[in-house]
Structure formats: C-alpha cells, structure tokens
Design brief:
Elements lengths: L8 E2 L7 H14 L6 H12 L3 E3 L2 E2 L15 E12 L5 E9 L4 H14 L1 H9 L3 H8 L4
Parallel strand pairs: 1-4, 3-5
Antiparallel strand pairs: 2-3, 4-5
GO molecular function, one term: kinase activity
Protein name: Mannitol-specific phosphotransferase enzyme IIA component
GO cellular component, one term: plasma membrane
Length: about 140
Amino acid sequence: MNILQPSNVLLQVKTENKTDAIRRVGQALVDNGYVEAPYIEGMLKREESMTTYIGNQVAIPHSMPEYVQHILHSGIVVAQYPDGVDFGNGNIAKLVIGIAGRGEEHMEVLSQIATVCMEEENVEKLVKAQSAQEVIDVIGETL
C-alpha cells in the first residue's frame, strides 16, 4: 500500500477548528485503510499534550505511542486549508498532514515530511496545488 496516494489528498478544505481538522485527517487515514478508528483519539491526545504545529504554515498531527497498535499500514493524509486552521498562539496551518507510521517507519515518515515542509517553496507549491498529483509530486519525491 502506498504511503501517499490521490485519495489521501484533500484540497480546498474550508476553515475549521484544529480539533475538527485533526479528526478530518485522522478519519481519512481510517477510511483509506491505514489505521483503526481509535488512532484518532491518540492524535487528539497528542495535540493536547503538545502542539503538532511545526512552523511554516504546517501541522503534522500524529498519535501518542500507546495508540501505535492501531496502525495497519504507514500512510499520510494531506489536507490543504487555503484560509488556514488556527493551532493556537497565532500559528495558522495551511497544511495539516496526518501521519501514521508502523514501527521504525514512523520517525522516517515524520522526518521526510518535516524536511519537505522546511522549504518555503515546497509549502507554497502544496498550498497552491490544484490537484492531488501536484501534492504527490512535491511530497512523493522523498517517500
């Protein structure tokens, strides 16, 4: 199963609060067969314990360690929010990237996504992407 496929890309999502945004990417991970539903609870608990906003208009919600047994396959979901999602303290995410990584893949996937999103040029391309393929072309180069 591919970590990133077209059904994992959500474009032009209307602004919502961070809890709903995390639920949205978590549910997409469930719907696409990457995780079981309890994983979403772990994503919300992670956000309560520390923000998953990494800067540069990007948040990368993922779960607490005690929920990893609910990961079926490694995968990511990219939700594009043109008007942003407020992650608190003035941090607005235009990209909310839900991730689930099995075993050692978790840190590898997280690291690769963070590396892509450190480059403002890449974030700009992702925020302006008009198709799932454009998103895959930017992120997929590293996965």
